[in-house]
Amino acid sequence: MNTTDERYFRFALVRDMLETPEIIARFNPDQAIDVAEEIAGTGRLLLTGEGSSRIFPAKNAVAQAQRQGWSLELHTEAGRQSKEYDLSDWAVFALSNSGRTAEVIELYQSLREQGHSHLFSLTAFPDSKLGSLARRAFVLSCGPEGAVAATKSVIEQALFHRAMLEHVAKRPVLGSRLPTLSDQFREALTTPISAELVDKLANARTIYWAGRNDGVAEELTLKTNEITRKRSDFLEGTYAVHGIEEVMDPSDVVIWMDPYAGSMTKFEDVLVKGVKLTVIAVSSQPTPFPTIRIPDGGDLSGFVQMAAGWNLLVEIGIALGINLDKPERARKVGNEFVG
Asked: What would the 3-class secondary structure string for 175-238 be?
């Protein structure tokens, strides 16, 4: 992504993305200490939301908690399915950029009617409908976004969950790591991408994203639709070599986030040699594939990978001459509450 070329900077989407490193640097990791103590007391937390307000923020937090072995019982589900669950002994935290998302508002209305008290929210605006239903409502510091596709808000939401869960686990270390993460995010966001790879992606029939179930590849799959208007699919883990190759085409591209070392030969045999498509890796390590090299963020690598994915998507959109800010059908609020 070129930070000075007018072809890029004229889009609000790019400006939102380029604000994100500073949002990371100034993030306050201690704003939810009291709520963390209450959540620790319940021992159970459901993270809910819709679309981009759940995929990366919640799933990345769940993956981190599992890797660290934190004792909190943690789960994520979208609003309508959450409404089917017995949440009487759970704390619930809902994210909604707009604060007007119908599914989570209906969930909170239902829980309030049941006398549920451990309800929390995070929105981009004060005095939101969702916030009015929560016992404690937080507001993002990043400000409104200029494009339809959510970007900087997603990163701040994910930081919020990460910081809060560190306090639940009594291991608050995020604050000291934010300056480095900010620099790594900026580097991944602005790393030059070869014209050959951009051309391959711009001409792909389908862009597949492969990777862990930690919200990164799945969120970038959604952003591919919104930003590039291309078909995309999320292939969790090693799903890419477990049957879907039957319908893949040589014009397709698989972007593999942080490849598993033990699976690279299989991907090469099945996809590159078998299907004859292109596999592009995003990794801090060298791979046998064309590779977008990014800094090693350790257990914060998901954030750095997200920046690299945004970088790729902007380059595709620029190459295709797309208005990055305004998709034809997608809306800023996916399903707005009316009531």
From this structure: HHHHHHHHHHHHHHHHCCCCHHHHHHHHCCCEEEEEECCCCHHHHHHHHHHHHHCCEEEEEECC
- Which of residues 177, 210, 226 is at a domain's end? 177
pLDDT digits (tens, 9 = 90+) for 102-132: 999 999 999 999 999 999 999 999 999 999 9
Q: Is the pTM of this model over 0.85?
A: yes
Give tens-digit pLDDT for 23-80: 999 999 999 999 999 999 999 999 999 999 999 999 999 999 999 999 999 999 999 9
By C-alpha distance, which of 27, 169, 155 is closest to 95? 155
Looking at the structure of the chain, the number of domains it has is: 2
Find the domain containing 167 and state its range: 6-177
pLDDT on residue 333 = 64
Instruction: Judge whether 48 lies within some domain.
Output: yes
Both tokens of 141, joined, read 């510091």
Q: How confident is the model at residue 330 (pLDDT cuts 50, 70, 90)?
A: low
Residues 135 and 153 placed together within one structural domain of the fold: yes
Q: What is the mean pLDDT of residues 164-175?
A: 97
Spatial contact of 46 and 119, defined as CB atoms under 8 Å apart? no
Is residue 170 situated within a structural domain? yes
Interval 261-296: pLDDT, tens: 999 999 999 999 999 999 999 999 999 999 999 999
- Both 234 and 161 in a single domain? no
pLDDT at 129: 96
The answer for residues whose C-beta is within 8 angstroms of residue 260's C-beta and 6 or more apart is: 238
Of 200, 292, 277, 285, residue with least CA distance to 245? 277
Q: Identify whether residues 164 and 217 lie together within a single domain.
A: no
| Residue at 87: amino acid letter | L
Of 154, 177, 200, the residue that ends a domain is 177
